[in-house]
Amino acid sequence: MNQEQMIACLPAELAGRVKSARMVGERAVVVVDASGLSPAARAATEQEISAALEGREGVAEVRVAMMADKVRRRLIAIGSGKGGVGKSTLTTNLAVALQRKGLKVGVVDADIYGPSQPKLLATEGEKPRAENDKLIPIDSRFGVPVLSMGHLVKQGQALAWRGPMAGNALSQLVDADWGDTELLLIDLPPGTGDVQLSMLQKHKPDGAVLVSTPQDLALIDAARAGQLFDTGGVPIIGLVENMAGYACPHCGEVSDPFGKGGVETAAARLELPFLGRIPLSLPIREAGDKGEPSAAGESEDGAAFRAIADRIADWLAREAA
Ligand SMILES: Nc1ncnc2c1ncn2[C@@H]1O[C@H](COP(=O)(O)OP(=O)(O)OP(=O)(O)O)[C@@H](O)[C@H]1O
User: Fold this and answer.
1) What is the pTM assigned to this prediction?
2) Can you tell me which residues bind ATP (predicted)?
């Protein structure tokens, strides 16, 4: 068979992607343009081409080579000085909000001591496949692929990991087959320990977002996390204040259990951009527990996350210019 005859065997939508097709002895070698295809779509394309050519006269074997334009993938780390300030919730919602803006976004849950992305993105219990020694991210139903330690180990098991082991496991997540994903949000563990350091050294994120609640103690820790990024040469995109202002569901009165405006003041003092404020809101907590991120809906809470996502998208556009 010559190239034309080989291409004629393929369905029209696949034929358009073929860059070259030739016989090498009894082996059919087809080179396909895989730009813009997800890992799942690439696997399906490969199978369809093999199925269409296998068994044809003179074809003993089919080899399909996928070529894609190299995606310039950028990494943004979401960090906090202290645990429980809403870093994972922010990561999920920013990813969903940025995806809604048309970016191809994935989430790496590097919080090996308390992975929460499987729950937040409703992929609990799913296990990633591996192909050619690389993990294939799990497609969440929000158009955001995700990989988490929580997908790889049984609950609680990750807690015993330390230093190099944790760092290697984290690298497997970041270096997975992210296909055409152009932006990875990395949900870091809280604090400034080994895992954060190894992440900065090995993967050098393009930028970092720091999240804090407004009270002084959280702010001191956030400033320390900021220093870690500074030392690692990672630009800080800005600070986010979470759990600000609680509107009483009964009377509507807004109170500030963790103080007010502390993060904005701290950002000004540290000469860092302030990216916005997320209210302390029962629906945000409930949405997280249900695996239905607020940013996927049209509520006011969702709008607060989207406003911060807009600022991050602006930062990305400025950096790319
Ligand atoms: N703005 C908010 N309003 C109400 N609840 C929130 C808000 N942000 C986060 N939460 C809730 O607070 C808890 C901790 O949030 P989350 O897991 O996102 O924090 P974290 O900083 O990633 O924590 P960890 O240190 O465990 O990684 C969760 O139950 C979450 O639903």
Assistant:
1) 0.81
2) 81-88
